[in-house]
Amino acid sequence: MKITVARGKGGAGKTIFTTNLACFIFLLTFPGFTQKKQSGDFQEVDVHEFFIQMNLVENEVLIDVREYKEYRKVRIPNAILAPNSSELFRLADTLDFEQPLFVYCDDSNRSTTACVLLVERGFEKVYLLRDGLIA
């Protein structure tokens, strides 16, 4: 495929994207490239997948890493509040490394950091709610 993007003074066209477009289309054929995103050893999933996974597993722990005032206004039922790293580590010390952990905040910034910390502590099944509660 050739795409003409500009014409110079002499009328000669510049052709680009042939290789880039082919590579992009090739990458789209890989399963997972356009699906859920894995960051390190935690999975970043959309809201639909987040709740499906939560309902499929047993002994799951739902962790809200927002501030108390945000948690008090609205939260997912049965979520445990861990608004900072010391609270998160205190909670983590009570959990089994194989327990599935579901982590969220408002926009996934704080929850991404929390997921990284949990994976670094040795947790194996960590799920991040992509875009947080605003999703």
TrEMBL record:
PROSITE patterns linked to this entry: RHODANESE_3 (PS50206)
- Alphabetically list the UniProt keywords: Membrane, Transmembrane, Transmembrane helix
Write out the transmembrane intervals: 12-33
Q: Which InterPro entries match?
A: GlpE_sulfurtransferase, Rhodanese-like_dom, Rhodanese-like_dom_sf
User: Matching CDD domains, A to Z?
Assistant: RHOD (cd00158)
Q: Which residues form the Rhodanese domain?
A: 56-135
Record's PANTHER family? Answer: FAD-DEPENDENT OXIDOREDUCTASE, PYRIDINE NUCLEOTIDE-DISULPHIDE OXIDOREDUCTASE
Q: What is this protein called?
A: Rhodanese domain-containing protein
The scientific name of the source species is marine sediment metagenome
